């Protein structure tokens, strides 16, 4: 390895390290600030580490707002969204990949084109539907608009396309129905892409803010992101409490992403680039 190659690698790794620190530092600051006292958090010049690590800010934040209820609602909405979206994505991907029916490619192309419509344009229609169904201010209202996703169906369909049709015809000759073939053969093979869909959907559902803002109005049905926004007005200028509450919202998804980041990248690349 020559000197030029060594210098190039040093420059690349230095640039990546600086970029990583710029991305990670706000989260580190948020976490450390959640343990600071009010005097420490407004101190100038600011210091990075608190004088001691205690959970007083977390206890006070929980006493001022029902974050336990918000957390429970977020978990319920996330689990229901993941179950519904994964099921519909599997069924849709199998239909568009292995089954034969007129206009299949045209219908799928139309569905893909709908991805260009931002969710903000559909809020009024979805909101009207929720109100007419008398689901306003309920947990089902937070789940219903997200029971299907053409993006996840697209990822899974491309993965299904990589599986040889000879396997399908062999299973059919052996007497397996489409339903049996899907759940006993296709789904186990597609575990990498399914795991990616589940993780991405969980992250999206957990971080959802705009839709809960429109369809919930009381603490009984709020999720964590919306509850945090309401808490900002209650906590006022007590930044240490805001940092503690923000940590409660962000930390679970950061841990999940760190654990499963390789599965997300591998699943998207295998399902999005093949076919």
Polypeptide structure, described:
This protein is an all-alpha fold. Helices cover 74% and strands 0% of the residues. It contains 14 helices and no strands. The protein has helices at residues 3-33, 38-41, 56-64, 67-98, 104-113, 123-132, 139-143, 150-161, 165-173, 178-189, 191-207, 210-215, 224-235, 239-273. Helix 1 packs across helix 14, helix 8 (150-161) packs parallel to helix 14 and helix 11 (191-207) runs antiparallel to helix 14. The protein is globular. 29% of the residues are buried.
The class by helix and strand makeup works out as mainly alpha
Helical residue percent band: over 70%
Tell me the radius of gyration.
24 Å
Instruction: Give unreliable regions as ranges.
Output: none
The description of the largest β-sheet is: none
Mean pLDDT: 84
Overall geometric form? globular
Order of helices and strands: HHHHHHHHHHHHHH
Task: Describe how the helices and strands are arranged.
Layout: H1 3-33, H2 38-41, H3 56-64, H4 67-98, H5 104-113, H6 123-132, H7 139-143, H8 150-161, H9 165-173, H10 178-189, H11 191-207, H12 210-215, H13 224-235, H14 239-273
Helix pairs in contact: 1-14, 3-14, 4-8, 4-11, 8-14, 11-14, 13-14
